[in-house]
Hints:
By secondary structure, the protein is mostly helical.
Amino acid sequence: MSRKDHDPNPEDVPASASTTANEDKGEPPQFPDVASSPSKPRAKELATAHVLLRYGVASTNSLAKLYDLVMWSRGRGAPTHEDQGLLRAMLVMAGATLDVVVKRIIRDALQLLVNRSKNALETAAKHVYRRLLKNIQESGGQRLAQALLSRSPVAALVELIIDDITGESLQSMEQVRQAAAYLGLEDFSVPQGVQEAFAARNQIVHEMDIVHEQRKGRGRRRRQQRKKDEMRAFAEVLLRTAIQFCKSVDDALTDSHSHGRA
């Protein structure tokens, strides 16, 4: 008798035979979120950023819960590299959320804050000097001339600043601080642990989490082992930074609406 005669078609196996293990475990528990859904901002300029933030938080939470469900369903054993891939995806999603939210806020709020915040105006002036006036004989001169000859020179210059500072992805704590400075958030404090979270995120995005080792003159490659608690903490601090960033800008916008230029 052939092997085919011994092995039944999976479609012919009763459902109970393939699901007994899961049925014995009962319903899965309620797995915890990485972060709670953010509250709605008061400033209308942050409406789009808030939507993006909610989507990012929800996606990060879903990936975290999917990992928990996979591990719960298995019951025993260490996570495989495929399982850890869910943790990596969770962290990358949290980093992408911070990146897109900060950039959206800059695009939607910088013009207003430059007009109303002394700190934002001073940072914008430094940028124009450093990136345009100091390079006036190169590309900076042409960009400056086009802005000055536009119908709204100030708005055109701010648009140049926006293009400059949103052209690269956020990959470090210092970049978050710089973004806060452009928006005039003088007192914004980047949460502890952000740099470590970015380091892990960058290792995953740029190196596929591959670790290169040198042993006895020969190169060896392996994937970085990732632990659930550490990766959840990394994802949480990046989402918390995005939420705090949005709230700080919301406060700045609503305060400037009430009191004019700070």
